[in-house]
Amino acid sequence: MRLRQLAKLLLMSCFGYVSMQQAAFAAASDYRYDPVHSQIVFSIDHDGFSRPLGRLHVAQGRLRFDPDDWSKSGTELDIDMRGIDLGDAAWNDAACKPSLLDCKTYPTAHFISTSVERKDDTHGVLHGTLTLHGVSQPIDIPFRVNRIGKTIYGMHTVAGFSATAMLDRTAFGINGFPNAVGHSVAIWLELEGIRETSNNDKEHS
Fold it and tell me: Rounded to two decimals, what is the model's pTM?
């Protein structure tokens, strides 16, 4: 009889733990962007011959995500423009000159969300303002929620997102080489945020 009671108690404890874990993931949480696993890839026309790819990195940023009420979610981040990678050092330097990105004057781009629109269980649109090259413009970023959960080793709780965007570089005052470099820039974002925890709910690092 005691064994049955002990088994029942353990089973109830197990279900209770699972329920607590599910509730923790369901609540709104704050995350800091993981700069290793968060990358931004862009493509722009080169004189009609091709659309080369470049890469940028998230310098820093945070997001809040509430899976039950996306309207309570939001994000803010800085993008390192000086770390632009076009696959060639000379090309990187050319892109950072005053005629294009002017990375010395504007070393970072800044995005802050104004609202989050939910489309279905995994898709939404992030509405916000992008400040690039000293100019602020509204931008809409369709995104997908990939996964929210523990890493394979249980070290962190991670929220992962994929997103896309389009922008016109001339709207931000980036007007150099109009006949050789396209105006429309396609952007892909792969973002991971590590959940920030309090002293009472600390995850092992």
Answer: 0.82
